[in-house]
C-alpha cells in the first residue's frame, strides 16, 4: 500500500434495514455523523425501508432535504429484514459496507474499530455480542439454542452470538449479492462467501426507542432460514430416526415372538407395544414430512424465480459521495 491510499479517499456505505422506526432515525443519523467526522472519511447512508405507517419515510426525507448523504430504497410491499438487508447491499456503492440496525442496540461507534480492522486487511469484520441488555430471558435462551444447533449442524462457520452487524469489503458485497437464495440469511451467506474474517466483541445496548419489529413467527422463520439452507443434517436425521425405529420395531417383534413361544402369548402387552410403536412411527413420519417439506418449499420458491423484492422508489441526496478509489484496494488510516 502507498501513502496515497488514505482513508479520506474512500467511501463507507452504511446499510440500515428499517420498519416503523421514526423515533430512532434522528438520533441514529446524529451518531453516525459523529462517527464519520472522527474517521475523516466520506460516507453514505442506505436506508432499506419496508413501507411504514409511523412517518419513518417522511422523517428520512427531511434529512435528505437537509443535505445528509442518504439513499432511501422503499419497497412496494413489506419484504422483511433479511431481504431488506440484501437490497440495501445491492444499492450500496462504498469501498466497504457496514450493516447495522437503526434501534441503536448495536453502537455506531463500533464502526471505527471495524474500519481499523478493514484497513489492516480483513475483508469481513463481524461484531459478536458478549451481553444483551434489556432483552427477554426466554428469547435469549431460544437464541442460545439456535446458535448451538447452527454451530453443530451448519456446513458453514457462523460465529455464535453474532447478528447482522458487520463490515463487508466491496468485493465481499459483490459476491454476497450473487447469492440468489430467497431466504436472505446474511450471516450464513457471508460465511458461505468466505474471505478473511475478524470477530470483535461488544456489549449490546437496549433499544433506544420503540419495540422490536420481529415477531415470534418472524424469529422462527429466520431460525429455519439459518439452518435449512446451510445443512443437510435435518434430512439425514430423519433417515436415521427411521432406521432406529425400524430396528426397534423389529427387535420388539422378535422379543414378542420368542416370549410367546416360551411362555405363551399374552393378550395384553403386545397391544401396548403395538400402540407405542405406532405412536413413535406416526411422530417420526410427521417430523420427516415437515423437514422434507421445508426443503421442498424452498426448492419450489427458487423454481418460481419471482423477484425477491420490488423497489417502489429510490430517493437519494445530491450529496451522495462517489467512489474515487480503485476496486479492492484497502486504504491506510490517515
Summarize the structure.
The protein is an alpha/beta fold.
Structural write-up:
With about 325 residues, the chain is α/β, with parallel strands linked by helices. The protein has helices at about 25-40, 55-65, 80-90, 110-120, 135-155, 170-180, 185-195, 215-225, 235-265, 270-305, and strands spanning about 10-20, 40-50, 70-75, 95-100, 125-130, 160-170, 195-205, 310-315. The chain folds into 2 domains: about 10-210 and about 310-315, Spore Coat Polysaccharide Biosynthesis Protein SpsA, Chain A, CATH 3.90.550.10; about 235-305. The chain is built from 10 helices and 8 strands. The chain has an 8-stranded mixed β-sheet with strand order 7-5-6-4-1-2-3-8, with helices on both faces. Helix 9 (about 235-265) runs antiparallel to helix 10. The longest helix has about 35 residues, at about 270-305. The two termini are about 15 Å apart.
Proportion of residues in helical segments? 40-55%
Name of the CATH superfamily of the largest domain: Spore Coat Polysaccharide Biosynthesis Protein SpsA, Chain A
Molecular shape: elongated
Major beta sheet summary: 8 strands, mixed
Helices and strands in order, then pairings?
Layout lengths: L10 E8 L6 H15 L2 E8 L6 H10 L4 E6 L5 H10 L5 E4 L10 H10 L4 E9 L4 H17 L8 E8 H9 L7 H8 L3 E8 L11 H12 L5 H31 L5 H36 L6 E6 L18
Amino acid at each position: 500500500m502507498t501513502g496515497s491510499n488514505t482513508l479520506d479517499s474512500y467511501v463507507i456505505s452504511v446499510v440500515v434495514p428499517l420498519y416503523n422506526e421514526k423515533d430512532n432515525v434522528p438520533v441514529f443519523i446524529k451518531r453516525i455523523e459523529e462517527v464519520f467526522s472522527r474517521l475523516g472519511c466520506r460516507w453514505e447512508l442506505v436506508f432499506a425501508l419496508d413501507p411504514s405507517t409511523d412517518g419513518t419515510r417522511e422523517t428520512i426525507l427531511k434529512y435528505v432535504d437537509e443535505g445528509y448523504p442518504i439513499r432511501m430504497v422503499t419497497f412496494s410491499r413489506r419484504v422483511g429484514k433479511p431481504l431488506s438487508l440484501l437490497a440495501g447491499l445491492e444499492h450500496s456503492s462504498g469501498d466497504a459496507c457496514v450493516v447495522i440496525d437503526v434501534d441503536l442496540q448495536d453502537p455506531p461507534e463500533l464502526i471505527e474499530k471495524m474500519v481499523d480492522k478493514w484497513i489492516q486487511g480483513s475483508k469481513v469484520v463481524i461484531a459478536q455480542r458478549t451481553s444483551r441488555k434489556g432483552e427477554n430471558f426466554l428469547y435469549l435462551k431460544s437464541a442460545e439454542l439456535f446458535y448451538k444447533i447452527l454451530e453443530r449442524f451448519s456446513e458453514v462457520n457462523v460465529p455464535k452470538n453474532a447478528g447482522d452487524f458487520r463490515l463487508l469489503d466491496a468485493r465481499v458485497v459483490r459476491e454476497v449479492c450473487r447469492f440468489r437464495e430467497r431466504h436472505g440469511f446474511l450471516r450464513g451467506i457471508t460465511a458461505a462467501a468466505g474471505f478473511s474474517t475478524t470477530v470483535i466483541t461488544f456489549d449490546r445496548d437496549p433499544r433506544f426507542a420503540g419495540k422490536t419489529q420481529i415477531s415470534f413467527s418472524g424469529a422462527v422463520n429466520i431460525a429455519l432460514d439459518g439452518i435449512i439452507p446451510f445443512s443437510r443434517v435435518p434430512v439425514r436425521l430423519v433417515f436415521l430416526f427411521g432406521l432406529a425405529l425400524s430396528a426397534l420395531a423389529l427387535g420388539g417383534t422378535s422379543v414378542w415372538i420368542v416370549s410367546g413361544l416360551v411362555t405363551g402369548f399374552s393378550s395384553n402387552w403386545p397391544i401396548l407395544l403395538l400402540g407405542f410403536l405406532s405412536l413413535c412411527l406416526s411422530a417420526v413420519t410427521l417430523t420427516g414430512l415437515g423437514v422434507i417439506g421445508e426443503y421442498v418449499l424452498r426448492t419450489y420458491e427458487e423454481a418460481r424465480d419471482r423477484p425477491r423484492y420490488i423497489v417502489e422508489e429510490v430517493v437519494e441526496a445530491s450529496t451522495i459521495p462517489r467512489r474515487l478509489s480503485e476496486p479492492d484496494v484497502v486504504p491506510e488510516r490517515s
